[in-house]
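Hi U.,

Before I forget, here's the chain from the pilot set. I'm dumping it here mostly so it's searchable later in email.
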Amino acid sequence: MFAFKLKRMNLPSRIIQLVIFLVVSIFSNAQQDPRSSFFWNNYMHTNPAMTGAIYRHHANAQWRNQWTKVNGAPTTLWLNYAMKLDSINSGIGVSYEYDIIGLNKQHTALASYAYHIPIKKMFLSLGISAGIVNVSFNQQGFVINDPYDPVIPSSNQTFFRGDLGIALHGEKWNVGLSCTKLNGYFTRSSGPYDLAAHYWLFGDYTFQFGGSWKLTPRTQVGTDLKATYSMVALTAFWKNLWFGATAANLHTGRGFELGPMIGYDIVGKFRIGYTYEFGINTNLSSAIQNNATHEIILSYQLK
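Structure:
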């Protein structure tokens, strides 16, 4: 549990301390929801308080193909749009996620709202998301001797999903805490699928070097209180060109994946980026160690 006391303190230094703490947590294990190397470009999906927090308009598409040569490996698509409404100190947005792994497919559609409370040169944001999650099991080509076997999942199931988040946004930094699938903590399904509440913590800070260079360390941690997923990213910006790397623990807990990344912000409004991940620990299974993960982003962002 974490407690924040807003006293007269140097908030940027607190953010740096938080980032260091989260970097240490990368040694925890397990992957929960679909993860993204470009999580920092998609904050709203795991924390609704970031809706409209950074850009006046932000349209984003991300596609991830994980462990390309592993049969049934995860493939994920994210689509979202958010806008800032300065006249009412708010942000609104919508997001969609499509995730397929093995014979299971999942569709998630959410609408988000955030209220921004100005505090000098920063603001405190409170956010909420609501929507649906549809989970299906592809039985085509699957040999079933007994179609009524309770071990075999039903072909389709739909849930309500509710998320809550809080975030602080400064000129050079962001930090936030959220709970997604909050209703999963209170309700249980009678079917084979179920939602589990997940808790997310993230932080980032941008260092300026001269007029052309910037360096931004970022981290994100997610947990369902049984297993934890962690990722760190370090990105350097030179004018509109950016590059860096991410590191993430595997869901097996037996190794890590490293992903160099590169991208370009065209005229400061259109973003394109790519990352290539690979295993970096000899304890990884050969199926993962010898396979790559690809992820690309396409975004429109207007400050």
